[in-house]
Design a protein that fits this description.
- One of its GO terms (molecular function) is metal ion binding.
- Belongs to the 5-formyltetrahydrofolate cyclo-ligase family.
- It catalyses: (6S)-5-formyl-5,6,7,8-tetrahydrofolate + ATP = (6R)-5,10-methenyltetrahydrofolate + ADP + phosphate.
- By secondary structure, the protein is of the alpha/beta class.
- The chain has a single domain, classed as Rossmann fold, CATH 3.40.50.10420.
- The chain is built from four helices and twelve strands, in the order ααβαββββββββαβββ.
- The strands form three sheets. An eight-stranded mixed sheet has the order 6-3-2-1-7-10-11-12, sandwiched between helices. It has a two-stranded antiparallel ribbon with strand order 4-5. The protein has a two-stranded antiparallel ribbon with strand order 8-9.
């Protein structure tokens, strides 16, 4: 059986569709609790994605609460679909969030922070393998963004599902994860 990105995308989109609101809520909470076990809490700049509800992504609200409770700088992004680039803004109490044409919640504006300053990135994904390769939506935003970060930046994938053995069609430009956290396990790569 082929384990290429296209097939994995379709498999995991379909698995996600089967999750109830309650499943998503419970698993998101478990993932947030799992993150507390990681040795990342001495860092200051954390990048978090805001979930696309229509894609049944992990609800990162609990992670945002954890970070704000620990007084961390939380960064969220705005995506430019022409250049495939992400601009990162500090999330504050006054940040206005608006969905773009792809239903991605984004900051309207704010204090911009360069990728090089970001120490921890929580990464959305559809699937990942035991080597730390991930399958996203295929637009390449995160690969491009992660290349702009420093080699010290900790890359943490968040997944409702466990690892695939291997993803067949990994490209050279694909950025590997350092960790992937699921409700049941913390994978270290």
């Amino acid at each position: 059986m082929q384990n290429n990105k296209k097939e994995l995308r379709s498999k995991y989109k379909s698995l996600r569709k089967q999750l109830s609101e309650n499943d998503i809520e419970e698993m998101s909470l478990t993932i947030a609790n799992q993150l507390l076990k990681l040795n990342i809490w001495d860092k200051n700049y954390f990048h978090v994605f805001l979930p696309i509800e229509e894609h049944r992504e992990i609800d990162t609200e609990l992670i945002l609460h954890l970070l704000s409770g620990k007084d961390k700088n939380i960064l969220i992004s705005k995506s430019d679909f022409e250049t495939r680039e992400m601009t990162h803004f500090v999330l504050t109490d006054t940040t206005k969030i608006k969905k773009n044409q792809y239903n991605i919640p984004e900051p309207v504006d704010g204090i911009e922070v360069p990728s090089k300053k970001i120490e921890v990135v929580f990464i959305p994904l559809l699937a990942f393998d035991k080597k730390g390769h991930r399958v996203g939506y295929g637009k390449g935003f995160y690969d491009k963004f992660l290349k702009e970060c420093t080699s010290e930046t900790i890359k943490i994938g968040l997944s409702f599902f466990e690892a695939e053995e291997i993803i067949d069609d990994v490209h050279e430009g694909d950025m590997q994860l350092d960790y992937c956290v699921t409700p049941n396990e913390i994978y270290r790569f």
